[in-house]
Automatic annotation (TrEMBL):
<dbReference type="GO" id="GO:0000776">
    <property type="term" value="C:kinetochore"/>
</dbReference>
<protein>
    <submittedName>
        <fullName>Hemicentin-1</fullName>
    </submittedName>
</protein>
<dbReference type="GO" id="GO:0051315">
    <property type="term" value="P:attachment of mitotic spindle microtubules to kinetochore"/>
</dbReference>
<feature type="region of interest" description="Disordered">
    <location>
        <begin position="25"/>
        <end position="66"/>
    </location>
</feature>
<keyword id="KW-0132">Cell division</keyword>
<feature type="compositionally biased region" description="Low complexity">
    <location>
        <begin position="31"/>
        <end position="40"/>
    </location>
</feature>
<keyword id="KW-0498">Mitosis</keyword>
<dbReference type="InterPro" id="IPR008672">
    <property type="entry name" value="Mad1"/>
</dbReference>
<feature type="coiled-coil region">
    <location>
        <begin position="242"/>
        <end position="269"/>
    </location>
</feature>
<dbReference type="Pfam" id="PF05557">
    <property type="entry name" value="MAD"/>
</dbReference>
<dbReference type="GO" id="GO:0072686">
    <property type="term" value="C:mitotic spindle"/>
</dbReference>
<feature type="region of interest" description="Disordered">
    <location>
        <begin position="140"/>
        <end position="160"/>
    </location>
</feature>
<comment type="similarity">
    <text>Belongs to the MAD1 family.</text>
</comment>
<dbReference type="GO" id="GO:0051301">
    <property type="term" value="P:cell division"/>
</dbReference>
<dbReference type="GO" id="GO:0005635">
    <property type="term" value="C:nuclear envelope"/>
</dbReference>
<keyword id="KW-0131">Cell cycle</keyword>
<keyword id="KW-0539">Nucleus</keyword>
Length: 639
C-alpha cells in the first residue's frame, strides 16, 4: 500500500512538472482524460492568457518558478524517503535470513563444542588418575629402593665383619703355631689360649645364626626388586599412554579453539547485522526527537520575541540561527539581571549584618542600663529609708528638746539649726539623685526606641533579602533552561535531510575509558590520600591557631545528638574543661548552646558576673573572655 501511494505521488509530481514545462502537452493529456469538455477549457485558458498584461506574466512566471523549485524539493524528499524506507526492509529481511542461518550453525557448533568439552573433561579425569597412580608407584619404588640399599649395606658390613674376624682368627692360628714350642713348656697358657679360641668360635656361631635370617631377607628383597622392575615397566607403558592422551587432548583443544574462533566470527557478523538494523530504527527515533527538540526551541524563541517572522516554526538553518541569537541575547540579559540581583543581595546581607551588630550593641547597652537603673532604684530606696529614719530621729529629738527648752535655750537653737542644715543638704542630694535617675531613664527610653527602629529596619531587610533570594532562584532556573536550549541548538546545527547520524556500538571513548580505568583509580586513590593528609594537617593547624589566638582548646566528641564541645583553657595549672551541647532551635528561635555540668562549671556558678554573661546577655564569648581574664589574673598573681 505504501509503495503504491508513493508511486502515485511521484506520478502526480511528474505531471505537475510536465505541465509547468510544456502546457501544450499537459493540455493534450487533459483532452484525453476529460473528454469533450477539454477543448472548451483549453480555449478559455488561452483567451485568458492573451488578455494578461506583461507585468502579470512576469509575476506568473516567478510564481511558477517557485512552484517548480518546491515541486523538485518535494520530489527529492519523496525519493529520499522511499529509499530510506525501502532499504531497511530489504536489509532487515536479508539480515533475518542470515541471522537464522547463523543461529542454526551456532547451535550445531555449540552442541559439538559441548560434546568435545565433555570428552575433554573425561580425558582430563583419566589423565589425573593416571598421574596420581604414577606418582604413587614412583614413591613406592623409591621407598623400596631405599630399604633395599639399606639392607645391602648392612649385609656388606656383616660380611666385612666376618671376613675381618676370620682373618684375625687365621692370623692368631698362625701365631699359635709359631708359638707351640714355648706353649708346651707352659700348659697354663695353652689352656687359656684354648678357652679363648672356644669363646671366639662360640661368638662366630652366634654371628652365623644371626646372618642366616638376613640372608633370607636379602633373597626376599631381590624378589621384591624383580616385582618392582615389572611394575616400573608397566608404569612406563602407562606413561606412554598418558602422553598419547595428552597429544589427543591438545589436538582437541586446538579444534575447540578453532571452533570458538569461527563461532566468534559468526557472532560478530550477526551482531553487525543486528547493529545495522538497530541503527536504522535508532536513526528514525533520533530524527523524530531532533524534529521535536527543534520545534520546542523554535517555539521558545517565538515566545521570547513577538518581532520574529511568522515562518520561524520551519526547521531551517536560518530559523535555527535566528532562534539561537534570540535565546543567546535573552540568556545574556538574564545573566546580567542575576548579577545585579546578586550584588543587591550581597549589599542587603551586609546591611543586615550591620543592623544585627548595632542591635546587639544596643541590647547590651540596654541590659547594662537596666542593671544600672535597678542599682539606682535600690540606692533611692535606701536613701528614702535613711530620710525617714532621720525624720523619726528629728521628731524624737524635737520632743526631747521641747521638754528641756526652758533649761537650755541656746543649745536647743544650735541643734535645731544643725538639724535643719543637715536635712536641707540631704534633701538636695536626694533631689540630685532623682534627677540623675530621671535623665538615665530618658536616655534608656531613647535607646529602646532606637532599638525598635533598628528591629523594624531589620525585618524590612529580611523581607527584601527573601524576595531577592526567590528572584535569584528563579533566574538560576531560567539560566539552566536557556543553557539546555543552547546545548540543543548547538548540537542541532545540521540538516537532517542531507546528514545521517551513526551511533557507534563501542566508541573510542569507551575503549580509552576501559584501558585507563586502573590508572584513573590509582590516581584517584593518590588524590584521596593527599586530600586526607592535607585535611588532617589543616585541622591540626586550625586547632593550634585557635589555642594560641583565643586561649581555648576546642574538641568535638560524640556523634549525632550526643555531639559535645569540650573547651580547655590555655591559662591554668590544673587541667579543667567546660562542656557545651547544642540545643536545637524551636519555632522562631535559633539554636543555642547549653553549659553542661562539670566541676569547673559548678565552681563558676558562684561567680555572678561570669554567669550574667550567659543568663542576662546570652553571650558565650563574653563568658569565655571573663573566665580567661580571671584565669590570667590568677596565674600572674601566683607568679
Amino acid at each position: 500500500m505504501w509503495e503504491a501511494g508513493a508511486k502515485s505521488r511521484l506520478e502526480e509530481v511528474c505531471h505537475d512538472i510536465d505541465h509547468f514545462l510544456d502546457p501544450s502537452s499537459a493540455s493534450d493529456c487533459h483532452l484525453s482524460s476529460l473528454g469533450p469538455s477539454g477543448p472548451s477549457d483549453s480555449t478559455k485558458e488561452t483567451k485568458e492568457t492573451k488578455t494578461l498584461s506583461k507585468g502579470q506574466e512576469a509575476l506568473e512566471i516567478q510564481r511558477l518558478s517557485r512552484r517548480n523549485e518546491d515541486l523538485k524539493q518535494q520530489l527529492e524528499d519523496c525519493q529520499h524517503e522511499f529509499k530510506t524506507r525501502l532499504q531497511p526492509k530489504l536489509l532487515s529481511r536479508e539480515s533475518e535470513q542470515r541471522r537464522e542461518d547463523m543461529d542454526l550453525d551456532a547451535k550445531v557448533k555449540k552442541r559439538r563444542l559441548s560434546e568435545m568439552e565433555n570428552e575433554l573433561a573425561k580425558l582430563r579425569q583419566e589423565r589425573d588418575l593416571l598421574e596420581y597412580e604414577l606418582k604413587e608407584a614412583q614413591e613406592e619404588r623409591q621407598r623400596e629402593k631405599a630399604s633395599r640399599l639399606k639392607a645391602t649395606e648392612e649385609c656388606r658390613k656383616q660380611e666385612e665383619d666376618l671376613k675381618n674376624t676370620i682373618s684375625s682368627l687365621e692370623s692368631e692360628l698362625q701365631n699359635s703355631k709359631q708359638s707351640q714350642l714355648p706353649l708346651k713348656t707352659n700348659p697354663d697358657a695353652w689352656k687359656a689360649r684354648v678357652s679363648e679360641l672356644e669363646q671366639e668360635v662360640f661368638y662366630l656361631r652366634l654371628l652365623l645364626k644371626d646372618w642366616y635370617p638376613e640372608h633370607e631377607l636379602a633373597s626376599q628383597l631381590r624378589s621384591k626388586h624383580v616385582e618392582f622392575e615389572h611394575e616400573m615397566h608397566e608404569s612406563h607403558k602407562t606413561v606412554e599412554d598418558l602422553l598419547h592422551a595428552k597429544e589427543r587432548i591438545l589436538s582437541l583443544e586446538q579444534e575447540k579453539i578453532s571452533l570458538q574462533a569461527a563461532l566468534e566470527i559468526q557472532e560478530a557478523s550477526l551482531k553487525q547485522c543486528k547493529d545495522a538494523a538497530s541503527q536504522s530504527t535508532r536513526a528514525k527515533q533520533d530524527q523524530a526527537l531532533y524534529e521535536a527538540s527543534i520545534a520546542d526551541i523554535l517555539h521558545a524563541a517565538r515566545q521570547l520575541g513577538p518581532e520574529l517572522p511568522e515562518d520561524i516554526g520551519d526547521p531551517t538553518p536560518a530559523n535555527l540561527r535566528i532562534a539561537w541569537s534570540r535565546l543567546h541575547s535573552h540568556w545574556t540579559k538574564e545573566a546580567h539581571k542575576t548579577f545585579e540581583l546578586e550584588q543587591k543581595l550581597h549589599d542587603a546581607a551586609d546591611q543586615q549584618n550591620q543592623f544585627k551588630t548595632e542591635m546587639n550593641k544596643l541590647q547590651i547597652d540596654m541590659s547594662l542600663a537596666n542593671l544600672q537603673s535597678t542599682e539606682l532604684q535600690g540606692r533611692l530606696k535606701e536613701s528614702e529609708d535613711t530620710v525617714q529614719n532621720l525624720k523619726a530621729q528629728n521628731s524624737v529629738l524635737r520632743e526631747a528638746l521641747a521638754g528641756k527648752h526652758m533649761q537650755f535655750p541656746e543649745i536647743h537653737g544650735e541643734v535645731d539649726a544643725k538639724m535643719i542644715r543637715t536635712a536641707d543638704s540631704f534633701q538636695e542630694a536626694q533631689q540630685e539623685a532623682v534627677e540623675v535617675i530621671k535623665r538615665e531613664a530618658a536616655v534608656l527610653k531613647n535607646e529602646v526606641g532606637r532599638l525598635a527602629d533598628v528591629e523594624r529596619k531589620l525585618r524590612k531587610v529580611e523581607g527584601v533579602n527573601a524576595e531577592l533570594w526567590q528572584a535569584n532562584k528563579e533566574l538560576e532556573r531560567r539560566i539552566l533552561q536557556l543553557h539546555s536550549q543552547e546545548i540543543d541548538v548547538a548540537n542541532a546545527d545540521y540538516d537532517p535531510r542531507t546528514t545521517k547520524i551513526l551511533h557507534l556500538v563501542r566508541g573510542p571513548q569507551d575503549e580509552a575509558a576501559g584501558s585507563g580505568c586502573d590508572l584513573e583509580q590509582q590516581q584517584a586513590a593518590r588524590q584521596l590520600e593527599r586530600y586526607k593528609k592535607a585535611t588532617k594537617k589543616y585541622v591540626s593547624e586550625f586547632r593550634e591557631g585557635l589555642y594560641h589566638l583565643l586561649g581555648w582548646k576546642v574538641e568535638m566528641r560524640g556523634d549525632g545528638n550526643s555531639l559535645r564541645w569540650h573547651l580547655t583553657s590555655r591559662y591554668g595549672q590544673v587541667r579543667q574543661e567546660l562542656v557545651f551541647q547544642l540545643r536545637p532551635g524551636r519555632s522562631g528561635q535559633p539554636a543555642e548552646f547549653d553549659l553542661l555540668g562539670t566541676p569547673w562549671a559548678e565552681q563558676l556558678q558562684t561567680d555572678r558576673q561570669a554567669m550574667s554573661y550567659l543568663e542576662v546577655y546570652n553571650s558565650i564569648p563574653g563568658f569565655l573572655a571573663h573566665v580567661t581574664v580571671d584565669r590570667l589574673a590568677q596565674q600572674t598573681f601566683t607568679r
